[in-house]
Give the backbone structure.
Amino acid sequence: MPQNGKSGVRQAGDVVLPYALSAKESAARCAQQAGSYLGPKARLAATQARLRYDAELVPRLERARVAAGPAREHAARRSAAAMAALRGDITPREIQAVVRRRERRARAGRLAKRLGMLGLLAGGAVAAYRWWSAQTDPDWLVEPSPATEVPTEPEEQALG
């Protein structure tokens, strides 16, 4: 007697059902064993990762935030100025005045730095010359000048 498709599928299902149930129970048992074996190791790894994150990455992130602070403030100022310029609150003449003032201050700062360095070099040269002069002309090498006697008579007349 020929079988149609539905009855063949039912028969195959009935044949496979005990194997499928056994595989399901086996898989559940293996998953439970794996969980009980790997669970503590996974918790330990997570704890170590959290401690390492707190010890190494958090300080680096804090330093990066501090270091990024001035750049963030500068970017905020520039964007606010750009928005004001786009809205027309600031004229191009005002922008040029600010740029010229900033360039003037930068030139003055460079000049002050150069003058300071020149002063340090001059001071160092004077100190080196004085040291060298003292080395080549020490006090013990110089003969003392002859003593001059002062007449005692005027002193006696002043007292008398």
Summary: Residues 16-90 form one domain.
